[in-house]
Amino acid sequence: MSNSFVIRAETRGHADHGWLKSHHSFSFANYYHPDRMHFGALRVLNDDFVIGSEGFGEHPHSNMEIISIPLEGDLQHHDSMGNGTVIKKGDVQIISAGIGIQHSEFNANANKAVKFLQIWIIPKLQNIAPRYQQISLNASERKNKAQIIAAPTPNANSVWINQDAWLSLLDLDSSKDIHYDLKAEGSGVYIFVLKGGISIAQQLLNDRDAMGIWNTKKIHLTAHSDSEILIIEVPMHF
Predict the structure, then answer these.
(1) What is the pLDDT of residue 151?
(2) What are the structural domains of the chain?
């Protein structure tokens, strides 16, 4: 029998620094919730809003898989590996921090905010050489089907993650439904509604609500309105 829990949008941790407004699905920085430390190998899911020209100055990371998904606006990235790029809506970026990197992230525009998700996943292999990858996605490939955007093997259509994990985006039309088949034994799935309304196992989820599910092989999702969904499959034990 499957296990599950729901995190409602309004119960997430919240930080307001003026230039940065962030919602935390799991314990992060000054937000601590003993029952929300992680979901399997998923350690962080931050929903960030950064005003024009502001951002995060150079700071270190090590032994973490860091995925950024812009939702609106443009994010300027620099790192100690020599990468200097702009990440736009429709792109996905991954940093395998490995033995250690320094990086910065700033809103690339002065006159509009940038909104993005930052996801941290605990890696499978420790102390690897750091690695950077960024790709542009074809949004038509997620129309009423799950589009894999990160996977544990190199692929031209997704970024390569150092973990037995898969991230997918799904645009589901109102009244449509879909089955998501888990890809690995011992995985769990964290489903985050970016926009719209869906139901899973008689639970209704709306904008920014989420549900974690494990001990199952398949999940059935039904849309009650046009919906945009992020699906994160991770090992529950690692």
Answers:
(1) 98
(2) 3-235 (2.60.120.10)
